[in-house]
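Records of this kind hold a single protein each, on a pair of labelled lines. Below, a sample record shows both lines together.
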Amino acid sequence: MLENGWVSLMGAGVTALSWRAVVMIAVGGVLIALAIVRKYEPLLLLPIGLGCILTNIPNTGMFDEGGLLRVLYDAGIANGLFPSLIFLGVGAMTDFGPLLENPKYILFGAAAEFGVFSALVLATLAGFSLTQAAAIGVIGSADGPTAILIASRMAPELLGAVSVAAYSYIALVPVIQPPLIKLLTTSEERSIRMPHSEREVPKGERIAFPIAVTLICGVIAPDSLPLIGMLMFGNLARESGVVERINHAAHYEISNIVTTLLGITIGATMQAERFLRLETLMILGLGLAAFMFGSTSGILLGKLMNLVSGGRVNPLLGSCGISAFPISARVAQNLAHDEDPSNFLLMHAVGASTSGLIASVVTAGLLLAVLT
């Protein structure tokens, strides 16, 4: 009798396992393989892949009301908690010194947001609603937590596709950007050396910066405050030097725990009936377009600044405006190094990349204020 019950139970499980669920379980396996074998954003793609597998195994109830994955979703994604805590860790890890040394680099972050709005327009023309188009457009900010927050607020039905696209393209920045950069710039432009800043940013300025940014962004885009506030609090803990335990916790324990829970929960939204649709492929295509438009607008601004300055600005810095911190900065440095092995562009590239962090959050706040 017990044997018959076991066979019946197994049969019910196998019967409930649709081909769509099998495909999504395979997708989860691919994400895990990319994380382990290719080392593409392993801290996120590995738990996302696990969450994708868990949510597509039938009859577990894990994403039903009261289930583990649903509890995590309600506690951390639906209310924006996990993305905000991720930004606390990012702030603790980020040195805004290079941006403070060259404040003009904030223009690169602003220019790269063109990718967000161009993809928003394209998504609207493709038939998505305005809020869905905004969620898709934010993929172009190359900022995973921001994309998750916007999608969870504006288009929760697209959360899985938007999140996977955002983090996948961030991981693929070293593949996506170099051909585009080489197409838009010359070897001479990529060889331009940027002088090291002679100005040492004083500690008082480093402390005042996160406070000032929080106040300014809070006034301009109040809806950005959960993200920008946590980002700048993490940076304030870093720069103040008086709360090392908080800084250490934000940098390591909080960041690691929340990243794990965030990844598993995002993976849990990749349910077969939601994910295996034509619109998912459209989101992936529009997300790639957003990345390319954002990179292009930043590079073109870099070329313009180089022209205006009489050849003293390397256009590679413009490609860092999409954020993807710090991956885009490393790509710019590598391309500059390829042209001239003695050219050290990294600190300038980091300054441009950190400007993208701020610009992406402000853009998200403005979208939330206007569209919700």
